[in-house]
Amino acid sequence: MRLVTFTNNDKSVGGNGVRVGALLDGGERILDFHAAVDGVMHHAPVAPQDWIDLDGVWWPQALAVYESVTRGDEQLARAEERGLIVPRANVRMLAPMPRPGKLICIGLNYRDHAAESNMPIPEKPIVFSKFATAVTGPNQPVVLPARSEKVDYEAELAFVIGRRAKNVAKEKALDYVLGYTCLNDVTARDFQFADGQWQRGKSCDTFAPMGECIVTTDEIPDPHRLAIKLRLNGQTMQDSNTDQLIFGIPELVAFLSETITLEPGDVVATGTPPGVGFARKPPVFLKDGDVMEVEVEGLGVLTNPVAAVCVRVE
Hints:
Blueprint: E1 2-8, E2 18-24, E3 29-32, H1 33-37, H2 48-51, H3 58-69, H4 73-81, E4 85-87, E5 91-93, E6 103-107, H5 111-116, E7 126-129, E8 135-136, E9 142-143, E10 151-152, E11 155-161, E12 177-184, E13 187-188, H6 189-195, H7 199-202, E14 208-216, E15 227-232, E16 235-241, H8 249-257, E17 267-269, E18 291-296, E19 300-307
Parallel strand pairs: 6-17, 8-14, 9-19
Antiparallel strand pairs: 1-2, 1-5, 1-14, 2-3, 3-4, 6-7, 10-13, 11-12, 11-17, 12-14, 15-16, 15-18, 18-19
């Protein structure tokens, strides 16, 4: 299943509040979970996290509706008659997890990126975070801070936690993962290096584009064998594979959950491959009018323009 979070621009068919659903027909239409359960189980939950809790009451409802609707053309037609399906053209896509409780990032986690940076392979994961207010959705502008002149891109595979995880064994770790999404760990390098720590440079508003969807684990047999790329204005800048990850997803879940309780909706970005702007000669930094595309095999493409000033997108 490919899960999305969106607002419906047509108020006559459900309003424009934040809603959760699943892509159909290659992404051309969306099954609206809220419309499917309203009136059946009272009111649908407001928080997207409630829908994706694998141990909660709403995930089984979403799964049952999706499996019913996708069983055949007749069921799909009935769902359309009931107003459960929304044309993509009628919605605005948000980040699939617009306000994660935690957005955890892993630094220097690709062997080829460590080699590019002339740094030794880490003995344990390097952990940092981005504030949730940095999250933005597909096709939304990444806004360059007025005081930064060295903003960089970082294509990443991220995974989304689907159930509460504490002291999880590596062998059981994937049972706690809902799915995977594309993420761009945009970074103000001048802030990062001047501050001596990474929080401000990583957490500027709009510096965590994510999406467009969460692809559930059943659709990705091995997340450690996926091509990952970043294109800047159509030119490929990063081109690697998740088989270069130093610490894979099971290791990360086990390591993090030793000291941090992971909760449904938490997002973990697994690190970036080589080709980042500051490591190039000469360096390449983002400028107004640029367009970034993060592509992870099987997950689709996350596209975001770059803007020098705040742009309001309806």
